[in-house]
Amino acid sequence: MNAPLLVDAPVYKDFVLEDLKRWRDEGLRTALLTLVAVEGRSPRPLGSQMAVAEDGRAVGAITGGCAERALALDAMAAMARGENHTELYGEGSRFKDIVLPCGSGLHVHFDVNLPDETLDALLAARRDRRVAELRYDFDKPYVRTYVPQCRLAVVGQGPITVALAQMAALTEIAVDIFTPDRAVLRVMQATLMTGPEDFDAGVLDNWTALAMTFHDHTYEAEVLRRALNSGVFFIGALGSRPVHERRLEALAAMGATGEQLARIHGPIGLDIGARTPPEIAVAVLAQIVSAWRRTVTG
Fold it and tell me: Which residues are paired to 152 by β-bridges?
C-alpha cells in the first residue's frame, strides 16, 4: 500500500488502543507511539500516546498539536521498515524543521511490532476494569500504566442530568444514568428507576464517581447509603445547604458515620456562580475531574 504524503491532524483521544485494535482487525499495519521521556516541560504528560494506521489515520496526542502530523508520517515510515525505535523531537533533535514552542525535548517510542496477545490483554483489562501495564526494556526500562476508565454514575432527573452526561462523555468518561424521568429516557440511554432498588450498586467501584442530580430527593438516602459503603472516589449531590443538612441527618439516622458523611460534596459542583443546567453541569464535571486526577496521580 502506498502511504499518503500528508495525513490529517489526529483526532484527540486519551485511550487509543481500541482504535489500534480495530485497524489491525481491518488488516492494516499499525504503530503505537508513546511519550517515554521528557527533557524540560511538556504540554502532554509522560505516557501520552498516539495510534497510527498505515493508511494515515491517527488518534491521540503527544505534543498538544505541534508535531502530530510529523509523528504520524514518521510512524508510517517506521511501519514500512518494520522496526521499533525511539526518537527525540524538539530541543536537541536532529529534526530542525520541527519546533516545539515549549522548548522541551520529547522522547517518543515507535512500536510497530506490538504483539497481538499484549494488545488483547490490555484491552481485556480495560473491559474488566483492572489496572494493566505495558513494559518496554530500554536502557532505562519504561512502564506505561493503564488505569480503568473513569466512570460516572448519574442518578437523578431533569436537564442537568442530560447536560452532565453529555459533557462527561466528551472527556472519555463512561456514563451510567439511573432516572425516573421519562424525558431523560427519551433522549439518553439510561436505566429506569421506579425506586432505589433499581439502582445497580455494582457500578460503584474505586474508579467511579456518583453524582445525584435529583430535585425530588425521595430516592437519595438509600442510593447514597450504598455509595458510602463502597470505594467510589467521589460522591456529590444537588441541593441547597439546608437540603444537604437534612440529607446528612437522614443518612446519620441510617447509621452513616461522620467520616462517611464528610465524603459527600453538597451542594455538588465548584462554586463558579452557575445558574443554568449546562453551567451547573460544567461546575459538577470540573469537580469530578479534579477528584479523578487526584485519584490517579496520588
Answer: 175, 209
Domain borders along the chain are: 17-146, 151-297
Evaluate if residue 245 carries a pLDDT over 60: yes
Residue type, 81: R
Is the confidence at residue 233, as pLDDT, over 50? yes
Q: Which one is the CATH code of 151-297: 3.10.20.310, 3.40.50.720, 3.20.20.70, 3.40.50.10890?
A: 3.40.50.720
Q: Which residues of 235-259 are buried (b: 16+ CB within 10 A; e: fewer)?
A: bbbbbeeebbeebbebbeeeebeee
**pTM more than 0.70:** yes
Helix pair 116-128, 17-25: axis angle to 10 deg: 130
Q: Which of 171, 142, 150 is nearest to 35 (CA)?
A: 142
89 neighbors 106 (Cβ within 8 angstroms): yes
Instruction: Give the Cα separation of 177 and 184 in Å (integer).
Output: 9
Mean pLDDT of 43-71: 91
3 has a pLDDT exceeding 50: no
Q: Which amino acid is at 39?
A: E
Q: Which residues pair with 106 in a beta bridge?
A: 38, 89
